[in-house]
Write a structure and sequence with these properties.
Blueprint: H1 2-16, H2 23-55, H3 59-83, H4 89-117, E1 120-121, H5 124-142, H6 158-182, H7 191-197, H8 212-243, H9 249-272, H10 276-305, H11 315-331, E2 336-337, H12 339-357
Antiparallel strand pairs: 1-2
Length: 358
């Protein structure tokens, strides 16, 4: 289905998008593309989970988070090219990822797991390692530009942008070495808790797990058409925001919702299966990969296309970001979670949604 849709829009897309004034036609094209991209994203996640089952933790979860982050970066790049000067799109998308994941998805996973199992455990050292990198990168990338004076507005000067890009990639590289080589035990549930929670096979029982050689080409086969379709859906999204006079942040939020929906289902299923360690690896890993890889990507796009990239947040969004980071540090200060922690994160997510529109 995704290949057929890609072929159709590659041939007829320019003609179909020439006039979107008819609301029925506009809604039809937007829903068609949204549904196909969402189904393709779910297929990507399904095959990434198959690889995760074969490769084990934490490498398997890394495949999934990088796949989802790759989709996000490609969609942001496509929307930036189609938006002709949407300078705040990347900032809004990254903030949306942090809010959706650290508040919405973490809150839902902790709430569902707490309701079913009362308390759940995970490896505290791994969560602290994630947050030790997420917090400085989020503050440097989304808060600091508001206060710099080397360039006009909440932007970075070329030297600052280059430094932050190199530092983001470098820190993420060091983290990957810690996660997959030197301290893999930080990201695996302790053996005593693992035996009580059951093995990872339970989580993948809803679909057949085959070989790495089977899942890898299919993952790429679903991922590549999404690159082309993401550029197509950028046109109706930008048109709709412009015509409806919707908040500019809505574009970044829609991109993040589209990309993160399959991953949120995977994290919720893991929590319900009492595999909270996998949920933590998925969710915190998604935020870390998004921030550390999206910032360099959009800054490079800005250099190439000579676009101004606004990264600094306004006072309201900055408050929500710092509050979310502070609450996340408190949540993952203990190796046990409960319903209360999930409820707090969900309330912060609802506050973020309210502030988008008011």
């Amino acid at each position: 289905m995704n290949l057929a849709t890609t072929a159709v829009f590659f041939v007829l897309g320019a003609r179909w998008f020439a006039d979107l004034s008819n609301p029925v036609w506009f809604a039809f094209l937007l829903l068609w593309l949204f549904a196909v991209i969402l189904l393709s994203a779910m297929a990507v996640v399904r095959h990434a989970e198959g690889l995760a089952a074969k490769l084990g933790e934490p490498l398997g979860t890394l495949v999934l988070t990088l796949s989802v982050t790759g989709i996000e970066v490609m969609m942001i790049a496509a929307l930036m090219y189609a938006g002709h000067g949407n300078a705040t799109l990347a900032r809004d998308a990254m903030l949306a990822v942090v809010m959706i994941v650290l508040n919405g998805m973490v809150g839902m996973s902790l709430l569902l797991g707490g309701l079913r199992y009362h308390e759940q455990t995970y490896n505290l050292q791994g969560a602290n390692a994630f947050l030790a990198v997420i917090v400085p990168l989020a503050v440097l990338g989304l808060v600091l530009p508001t206060f710099t004076v080397s360039s006009p507005g909440p932007t970075f000067s070329p030297l600052q942008a280059i430094f932050l890009s190199i530092m983001s990639i470098g820190l993420y590289g060091v983290f990957l070495a810690i996660q997959n080589v030197r301290h893999r035990e930080y990201f695996i549930v302790p053996s005593a808790a693992a035996s009580a929670q059951g093995g990872p096979a339970e989580h993948h029982a809803d679909h057949e797990v085959r070989s790495v050689a089977y899942h890898t080409p299919l993952l790429l086969g679903y991922l590549l058409p999404m690159v082309l379709l993401s550029k197509q859906i950028a046109v109706p999204i930008n048109y709709g925001i412009h015509v409806l006079h919707a908040p500019a942040a809505l574009g970044g939020f829609l991109v993040s919702v589209l990309v993160l929906s399959p991953e949120s289902l995977s994290a919720a299923r893991a929590a319900l299966a009492n595999q909270l360690q996998r949920s933590v690896n998925l969710l915190l890993g998604s935020v870390l990969a998004s921030i550390s890889l999206t910032i360099p990507a959009v800054l490079i796009i800005g250099f190439v296309t000579h676009q101004t990239i606004v990264l600094g947040l306004g006072p309201v969004d900055m408050t929500m970001l710092l509050l979310t980071l502070a609450v996340s540090i408190l949540t993952f200060a203990s190796a046990r979670t409960n319903v209360l922690l999930g409820a707090v994160h969900l309330l912060l997510f609802l506050a973020y949604l309210m502030l988008i529109f008011d």
